[in-house]
Amino acid sequence: MKKALIIVDVQNDFCEGGALAVPGANEVIPYINLLMEENEYDQIVLTQDWHPANHKSFASNNDRKVGESIILNGVPQFMWPDHCVQGTFGAEFHKDLNRDKVTHVIQKGKNTEIDSYSGFQDNNHFMKTGLDDFLKYHEIQLVEIVGLAMDYCVKFTCTDAVANGYITCLHFNGTKAVNVKPENGRDAIYEMIQKGVTVLG
What is the C-alpha to C-alpha distance for residues 137 and 131, in angstroms, rounded to an integer? Predict the structure, then answer.
């Protein structure tokens, strides 16, 4: 069975000191590096938030405060600080992430009008990123997922992987939650398990 490791959004803006830093984010990088070192993956894919500066998920572009919600193209949209803007330092992968074995990069969130938490598709399910096509082309059947953040981009990437027919495993030690609300990370785990994701300790 061919397997892939999907590393979600380990970018400077989500790490310590970033515009949208996930608590404890830097702690997962050595774990992710060890996974790549100790396991044989047929493909290793990075996803990368890659927003235009005028992206509608940014509070600053809607005259809103960070933490508010709006309806954007028919779906609820949390208002984020500006983050992972194309071509900026914040959008770059963290320097400590070993990329020697990476075989593919998927960029997401490029459409100004709609956010894209999942590595597979945008939040409206209008546009695919090409990740599913890439994995199917390489005959991947099992995906292991790590990265940032557990309660947003990791959760949606995991549940979309299941929906696309992959055996899907989340490495709990390779992810951290934003926890806008304290229970968000816990709830994300429950939701993923209910949808068929296997959570590895």
Answer: 10
Within 8 A by CB and 6+ apart from 30, the residues are 96
Chain-centre distance of CA 94, in angstroms? Answer: 14
Cis peptide before 149 (omega within 30 of 0): yes
Tens digits of per-residue pLDDT, 120-149?
999 999 999 999 999 999 999 999 999 999
Cα–Cα distance measured from residue 65 to residue 187, given in angstroms and rounded to the nearest whole number: 25
Quick one: tokens of 113?
């009008």
pTM: 0.97
Q: Which residues are catalytic?
A: 9, 108, 153
All structural domains of the chain, each given as residue ranges with its CATH number in brackets, are: 3-199 (3.40.50.850)
Question: Cα dist. 155→38, 54, 158, 198 in Å?
Answer: 24, 25, 5, 12
Sequential DSSP letters for 25-74: GGGHHHHHHHHHHHS--SEEEEEEE-B-TT-TTBGGGTT--TT-EEEETT
Q: What is the pLDDT of residue 73?
A: 86
Q: With contact defined as beta carbons under 8 Å apart, do 101 and 36 qualify? A: yes
**CA–CA distance, 104 with 191 (Å, rounded to integer):** 28
Separation in Å, CA 60 to CA 21, 33, 63, 109, 138? 18, 35, 6, 17, 40
Give dist(CA 153, CA 177) in Å, integer. 10
- On the question of pLDDT at 201 being above 90, the answer is no
Whose CA is closest to 35, among 177, 173, 196?
Answer: 173
